[in-house]
Amino acid sequence: MGGSPRVHSRGFVPVRKYQGASATxxxxxxxxxxxxxxxxxxxxxxxxPPYNIGKQFGATADRWPDEASYLAWxxxxxxxxxSRLSPHGSLYLMASxxxxxxxxxxxxxxxxxxxxxxxxxxxxxxxxxxRFGSLYEPILHCVNDPARYTFNADAIRVEAPTGxxxxxxxxxxxxxALYSADKVPGNVWYFPRVRYRMPEYEEHPTQKxxxxxxxxxxASSRPxxxxxxxxxxxFTASAVAQRLGRRSLAVELEPDYVAIGLRRLGLATRxxxxxxxxx
Length: 279
Known about the structure:
Elements: E1 16-19, E2 23-27, H1 30-34, E3 42-47, E4 56-57, E5 60-61, H2 67-83, E6 85-94, H3 100-108, E7 112-120, E8 136-143, E9 158-159, H4 161-164, E10 169-170, E11 177-178, E12 182-183, E13 188-190, H5 210-220, E14 226-230, H6 236-243, E15 247-252, H7 255-264, E16 270-271, E17 274-275
Parallel strand pairs: 2-15, 3-6, 3-14, 7-13, 14-15
Antiparallel strand pairs: 1-2, 4-5, 6-8, 7-8, 9-12, 10-11, 16-17
Helix pairs in contact: 2-3, 5-6
């Protein structure tokens, strides 16, 4: 996740396609790639675009001239993505804390926002000294139809400490009983960030943890359904989708990350004349 930044489709070579039994990679600009995807075909879209905060994605810098340019770029591919969402599908968008309010308003005019999730994590070291440092990223959960959408609550239940650990009794019930030992997660999620030498680590500046993507995919899709993985980066969403029995269609621009996806998804053993081995 956290794929490569911008190259407008009009100035980029045609999209290249790599396809397997349940996983497909589109190598190219997101605008051009989305135009090859059938309308209303994805039951789940996971979008983790560059945040416009100066990260380096392979040979491409994550930096637009100004915020307005970045938001206009986001509007272009989001418009296409929304049209590829199935009538009862879900879209999860990850973005910076600075830009998410703008993107929230944009999507509110096109979809229904169900949840505004906070993914929080541990500090990697020294934090800001003259302000409160950021230890979270926002995730927007949107649906086409708020009356009918997939949400597999039992697949994502977590421990409820009140019942599971504290063993408290709910005396408000006609017959007092222990509080439930599990629950559906709220909208504040703790997952550690992926660190160097962790088993799932890939060489990428903004890799998202598998556990985070597993919760999203398990909650908002069913086996056999299509997960559209935009700005695939390390292809974590696609790899988790594959493990959970979903189909995936991933879009990525940067060739170094396409190589990661081809390897992780088992679509090729060689790419651009080199063997695909984990570094």
